Amino acid sequence: MEPIQIILVFLVACVCGMGSILDEWQTHRPLIACTLTGLVLGDMTTGIIIGGSLEMIALGWMNIGAAVAPDTALASLISTILVISGGQDISVGISLAIPLAAAGQVLTILVRTITVGFQHSADKMAESGNLRGIDMLHVTALLLQAMRIAIPVLIVALSMGTSVVTDMLNAIPDWLVNGLNVSGGFIVVVGYAMVINMMQAKYLMPFFFLGFVVAAFTTFNLVALGVLGLVAAIVYIQLSPKYYLKEALAQYGAAGGGGSKPANDLDDDLDD
Amino acid sequence: MSSETAKVTVGEKKLTKRDLMSVFIRSNLFQGSWNFERMQALGFCFTVVPIINRLYEGEERTEAIKRHLEFFNTHPYMGAPILGVTAAMEEQKANGAPIDQAAINGIKVGLMGPLAGVGDPIFWGTIRPVFAALGASFASTGSIFGPLLFFVLFNAVRLGFRYWGVFYGYRKGTDVVSDMAGGVIQKLTEGASILGLFVMGGLVNKWTNIDIPVVVSTTTNQEGKKTVTTVQDILDSLMPGILALGLTFACMWLLKKKINALWIIFMLFGLGIVGYVLGIFAVPGS
C-alpha cells in the first residue's frame, strides 16, 4: 500500500468510526464504508460489491437502548482491505471480518465506558458555567470513538504488505473458503431475525408471511415488494377498528350532543 | 400555559431562528459521547449549548448546564422534537415563567421512552433496512448507484425529520405531549412495522441461498433419460425458501434466549463449513 493510501484509509476509518457511534450519516454501514475504502484503495467497484454483500448480512444490526451491535465499521474496512490489498476472495474477506465485528463491539463497549469519565468532567465544567468546556469534552469523546476504528485499521493496513500476512492469507484451504461461501448464503437470516424480534408485534406476523410467499412465487423486485408492503400497511390502518372506531366515536359523540355515552349507543347499533 | 407566559415574554429573552438552527446542526453529533453511565446526557447538553448561551448567565447558567447533564437516552433522531420542546420551556423559564427544574426534566424523561419506542421500528426497523436492502441489491452488481441511493435517501429523510422535529417541538412547546397522543404516532408505528415485516419476509426468501444437493432418487424413463431428484428439489416443490424461513425462526428463538447475535453467526459459519465438508450443502451459484 502506498503511504498516501494508508493516510487516506486512516481518514476514512476516522469518519466511519465516528459514524458508528453517532448513527447519523450512516458512514459506518458497509454500503458506505466499503465504497469509501474501495475508492481510496483504487478499486471502488470491488468496494461497492463487498459493501453490498456485507450490508445484506448486517441489515438488522442496530444499537437499541444500551445494547451494542456488532461493529460494521471495523468489519467493512478490514474486509475491503483484505480483498483489495490482500488479494483475497470476497467471501473470505467478509468471513474474516466477522470476528472483527466482534472485536469492534468490545472496543465500542470499552470506549463507552471510558467516556463515563468525560461525563464527570462535564459536571465540573458545569460548576464554572464553562460551555466551551462542554463542547470540547463532547468532541473529544467523539474523536476517541474515531480512534477506536482508525488505529486497528492502521495496523492492518501497515501489515498488509508483509510476507507473513500474505503467506497466512494464501494458506487458507479450499474447504474453508467453500464452507464460508456456503455460510455466506444464509448468514443473512440473523439480521432479519433481529429486525423481526425488534418489531415485537406477533399479531402483525401475517404480513411477514405474506411478504415471504409473494417473494417465493413471483419475480417481483424490492421496489415492487416495498410498494405492496406500503399498500398493505395503509389498508390495514384504514380498516383497523382500533382506529376507525375511535374516529367514528368522536364524530358520533359530537353529533349526538356530546358525551352521551357514545360507546353504549354504538354497542346498541352493533347488536341490531 | 403559552398564553399566560406570552405576556411575560414580550421584549425579553428570545431564542432566534439561528439558535434553533445551531441546535439542529449540533444534533448531528448527538451521540458522540454516549456512555454507560448517563448515556446521551453530555450529547444533549452539547446540543442545547446555544440555548443556554442565549438565555442564561452566571448561577442560572450553571443550573441549566447541570439540568441537561442528567441521564437521557432515546432514539437519536427522536431527540429532535424533545430538543425543540426543551428549547421552548427554557425560553419560558428564562423569562420568569413558573417552570422548575423538575418540570423540564420530567418532560424530557417522559418523552424519551415513548419516542424511542416509535423511532426504533420506524428508523431501525423499516426505513434503514428497506433503503439499505434497495442499495445493496444495486451494489451487488458493483453499481455506485447502490451506495448513493442509500446515502441520499436515508439522510434526506433523517435530516428532514431532524429539522422538522426541532422546529415543531419548539413551536408546539409543551403541547407536543397531547399532540403525540392523537393516534397519528401509533398509526405510523404500526404501519412502519407492517411494511418492515413484509419486506423482511420478501428478503428472507430472496436473499438467502441454501442448496442441499443430496440425491433422493434417480429414475430413468423409457427414452433412457435420467431424472435426479435432490432434497432441494423436494423442498422447492413444497415452498421455495422454506429452509431459510426455518432458519430465520431458529435465529429469532436463539436471540430471544438472549444468545449474542455474533455467536449465532459463528454457529452458522460452523454449520456451513461442516455441511460443505460432509457434502450436505453446495456452494451457491455452482
From TrEMBL, chain A:
UniProt membrane topology term: Multi-pass membrane protein
Cellular location(s): Cell membrane
Keyword Transport appears in the UniProt entry: yes
Membrane-traversing stretches: 29-52, 64-84, 90-115, 136-155, 175-195, 207-237
Pfam families associated with the record: EII-Sor
UniProt entry keywords in alphabetical sequence: Cell membrane, Membrane, Phosphotransferase system, Sugar transport, Transmembrane, Transmembrane helix, Transport
Record-linked InterPro entries: GatZ_KbaZ_carbometab (IPR050303), PTS_IIC_man (IPR004700)
GO biological process: phosphoenolpyruvate-dependent sugar phosphotransferase system
Ribosomal protein in keyword set: no
An example Gene Ontology CC term for this record: plasma membrane
Designated name of the protein: PTS mannose transporter subunit IIC
Species in which this protein is naturally found: Listeria weihenstephanensis
Origin organism lineage: Bacteria, Bacillati, Bacillota, Bacilli, Bacillales
TrEMBL record, chain B:
Record localization: Cell membrane
InterPro entries recorded: GatZ_KbaZ_carbometab, PTS_IID_man
Keywords on record: Cell membrane, Membrane, Phosphotransferase system, Sugar transport, Transmembrane, Transmembrane helix, Transport
A Pfam family per the record: EIID-AGA
GO BP term (any one): phosphoenolpyruvate-dependent sugar phosphotransferase system
Top-level taxon in the UniProt lineage: Bacteria
Protein name: PTS mannose transporter subunit IID
Species of the source: Listeria rustica
Transmembrane segments: 130-154, 237-255, 262-283
GO CC annotations, alphabetized: plasma membrane
Membrane topology: Multi-pass membrane protein
